[in-house]
Amino acid sequence: MLLHAEMRKQQKNFPLQIFASDIDENALEKARLGRYSAEAVDAVPEQYRRDAFGPVDGHFLVAKHLRDSIVFSCQNLVSDPPFSRLDLVSCRNVLIYLQSEAQRKVISLFAFALVPGAHLFLGKSDSISGRDDLFQLVDKDARIFRRRASAKPNITDFPLAPSAETRAAPRGAMAAGAIKPLSLAHINQEVLLEHYKAAVVIVDARGKILHFFGDATRFLQLPTGEADLDILAMARDRLGLKLRPALHRVTDGEAMAHIHDVPLRRNGDTFRANVTLRPLHPEGWHEPLVAIIFEEVDSSGDEAPVNTELGRDEVVRELERELAATKNELQATYEQFETSNEELKAANEEVMSMNEELQSANEELETSKEELQSINEELTTVNNQLSEKVDELGTTNNDLANLLNATPVAVVFLDQNMRIKRFTPKATDLFNLIPEDAGRPIEHISQKFAGVNIVDDARGVMAHLNTVEREVHTQDAWYLVRLLPYRTIDNRIEGVVAVFQDVTMHKVRQRLAITALDIMRRPAIVVDRNRSVVQVNESAREMLGYGHREIEGAAFHRLRGEDWNRPALRRLLDQAFDGVAGESPETLRIASPDQGEVAYRVRVTPSTGDAQSVWFVIVTLAPQDE
């Protein structure tokens, strides 16, 4: 009622299915009628009452659109299979009547029945029995819980069909194993001890004849065609109509049923019979049996002569009695038909419910199949992309290997623990390396140069993330060592790179230049890009009055004897470092111990003609009078 009202409010129309279950079949039968008294309906608010109920014969019936949404089903919560794919379960004030173990089983059943995120309504006194792994509390006062998406209910205790204890044995079947064989003749004889001169027939709950004793042909007749041992079909005249309700009463638990004074005909003779039905519960038999005892009524005392008028009246009364009995039998048959019809409707609703569940499961399987196909396509795409990446990495790795093998520079790559990652072939000129040394600590490898502790410098680079430069020499070569951090593409430091650049020829040229300077007669000063004195010849030392090592490293603009910081001289130095030689228009006057003050012309020449590689300039001084 509330759900239909909410759908109208939101202007939505989607299928709604409610499963109403109970263990009491009588309660379900009453609920299926959907009939309520006026007092009960008065408690329903007016806005719902108009849509949900309609008056019929002083009562109110549930509207058809509401009744069609509900399927009634007889279910035992503890032993019967659970429903599935439900969005809501309401079970109020039921769990309190169960033992704790049964409560836990039922809570697990609810978790299995509900989809993830669905809700469970319990009564004020009910609880989830500590199954917090299955449900999350939503409202403590209203006792509303939500099924967790991660819930894993254990449903191994819930059978897919009624359990063996509650399932009826097959027709005429006996339990296997240690069940004692049943002697129907012995049972029949025991009954006949109490009913002498009677015919006894033993039937099962469905009326199938299992055993005869005595002459039952006076009361039963053999059927024509296919053999059928149904007691109701074999009963003479209208006896079958009377046996049917009596058999139902006995199988439903009545201690005994009697049918009195039933008129029967055989071979043109009419006689009367009494029938008694008694339930039997023999040991080893899983379903109830019924003993039907037929006794012919002695009519010898009824042969006295009677008046014709009185005889005619008696016939009329007999016919009236038979008519009343026939009406009663028809009424009983009609009631049984209605009951069977309701049972069929209930069974049909259960079948519809199961069919809807199967359809829902099939749709879920179809959806899962589509999702798996989509995932498979995505995996195929990712696999292709990964294959392309692998090919790219292979190409890059080949390029890098060729680059390292072809480079004339010695390079050693170290990780954060100072272990060798890889090295170029030229690195074997400085370290005793073989290809198998990859992964070994660098400090375990002997080096071919002295004066530098490469491990300490590398650790200092890792600690301060700076660049360290050193000059080292082997027996036949000089190298400039540059240590710098190993940076990844995302700027993470993962080691140190040691680059050894061969500067032997540079050293040779430097020494040749120094030798040439010493040979020169005129004073000459070599200045680097920091404007520091790198080298002077003997003439310049004598002119300036410096010792052999005293002048090297001194600032050029602070030399003795003259203002070396003149703007014109600074411009000459700047031009020379740009690759342009020049001569100062001004002279420098420098006092000489043996010649007095002498004026000199100043010329600045770059060490090379390439402006990009000018690291030194040569400042020469010539007397003005030359």
Q: Which stretches of 5+ consecutive residues score pLDDT under 50?
A: 156-182, 301-310
Overall structural domain count? 4
How many helix segments? 14
Strands of the largest sheet, in order across it? Answer: 11-10-14-13-12
User: Whole-number radius of gyration?
Assistant: 58 Å
Q: What is the level 1 CATH name of the largest domain?
A: Alpha Beta
Share in β-strands: 25-35%
Helix coverage percent of residues? 25-40%
Class per helix and strand makeup = alpha+beta
Distance between the termini: 123 Å
CATH topology of the largest domain: Rossmann fold
CATH architecture tag of the largest domain = 3-Layer(aba) Sandwich
On the 0-100 scale, what is the average pLDDT? 81
The count of DSSP E runs of length 2 or more, i.e. the number of strands, is 24
CATH homologous superfamily classification of the largest domain:
Vaccinia Virus protein VP39
Shape: rod-shaped
The biggest beta sheet is recorded as: 5 strands, antiparallel
Describe what this molecule looks like in 3D:
This protein has helices at 2-9, 25-33, 38-42, 46-52, 64-67, 100-113, 184-194, 231-234, 239-251, 308-406, 454-464, 504-519, 538-544, 567-577, and strands at 18-22, 35-36, 53-56, 59-62, 70-74, 86-91, 114-122, 135-139, 144-147, 199-204, 209-213, 257-266, 269-280, 289-296, 410-414, 420-423, 468-473, 478-487, 493-502, 524-528, 533-536, 582-592, 596-606, 616-623. By secondary structure, it is of the alpha+beta class. It has 4 domains: 2-147, 3-Layer(aba) Sandwich (Rossmann fold); 184-301, Beta-Lactamase (2-Layer Sandwich), CATH 3.30.450; 407-502, PAS domain (Beta-Lactamase, 2-Layer Sandwich); 521-623, PAS domain (Beta-Lactamase, 2-Layer Sandwich). β6 (86-91), α6 (100-113) and β7 (114-122) form a beta-alpha-beta unit. The longest helix is centred in the middle third of the chain and has 99 residues, at 308-406. The N and C termini lie far apart (123 Å). The model is unreliable at 156-182 and 301-310 (pLDDT under 50).
